Fold GNAT family N-acetyltransferase.
Amino acid sequence: MLVRQATSADLDELSILFDGYRMFYKQPSDPGAAKQFLSERIERNESVILVAVYNDAMVGFTQLYPIFSSVGMKRAWLLNDLFVPENARGSGAADALLAAAEQLGADTSARYLMLQTAKDNYRAQRVYERNGWERDAEYLVYNKRC
């Protein structure tokens, strides 16, 4: 399993995975918009997208956005997206992507990595916990739609 940073040359294959990720979260399929969104993130250097490749096929991705810790006065990363399609689950792609995200955090001297997942996404929760991620018991998360 090879994990590397995505480039604009990966957009066709990556946008199919990204569209699948969005559909997993009950969004309508829109491959064109998916490709445009990812293209903008890559061109503007607004996120880091890591892809897992096995036998020359893309089998998963994660997208991280830079944030900052005011208290720690350091960079942090929001692991906003992680997706491995059903046919590649159990391949080790998720573990490899999480390890690469952790390496990105170390390489950038980040204070922490954070993520959120659906309360009923038990399979993902097991993957995160198996990889050393800890559920936050101290802070509540609030959201407000704009």
